[in-house]
Design a protein that fits this description.
By secondary structure, the protein is α/β, with parallel strands linked by helices. The chain has a single domain, classed as 2,3-Dihydroxybiphenyl 1,2-Dioxygenase, domain 1. A hairpin with a 5-residue loop joins strand 7 and strand 8. The longest helix is centred in the first third of the chain and has 11 residues. The termini are far apart.
């Protein structure tokens, strides 16, 4: 029986660049690292996000099927800051009946979403 999602993991090529992006530009709270900094965790209220250089044979990909969506405040102010920090805007920002979101590629080429619920 599944209890919850343990973590979402993204492979990265340049750990220093990726950490600068996720901790600096996106503001994720660094939690801990393992393997001499090859596995870095960011624990959030509802799970963990991980970046790693330990995933041998796995490379960053925008079209690999999965991505993570980060719930954020101030989406329209954040998106240009992320682009200035090395992200590539793919779609948006745009509205749906229940939210506002944008899809980007991180500094390594992984797809991710920033999302804000309405109301």
């Amino acid at each position: 029986m599944v209890k919850h999602i343990a973590f979402t993991m993204y492979p990265v090529v340049d750990m220093a660049r990726a950490r600068k992006f996720y901790e600096g530009a996106l503001g994720l709270p660094f939690t801990k690292e393992f393997g001499g900094g090859k596995w870095v965790e960011y624990h959030l209220d509802n799970g963990a996000f991980v970046i790693t250089t330990m995933a041998k044979g796995v490379t960053p990909a925008a079209k690999a099927g999965g991505s993570v969506a980060f719930e954020v405040d101030g989406l329209d102010d954040l998106v240009p800051k992320l682009v200035a920090a090395g992200a590539t805007l793919k779609v948006g920002p745009f509205d749906t009946p229940v939210c506002r979101m944008a899809y980007l590629l991180d500094s390594e080429g992984n797809a991710f979403c920033v999302h804000s619920k309405k109301g």
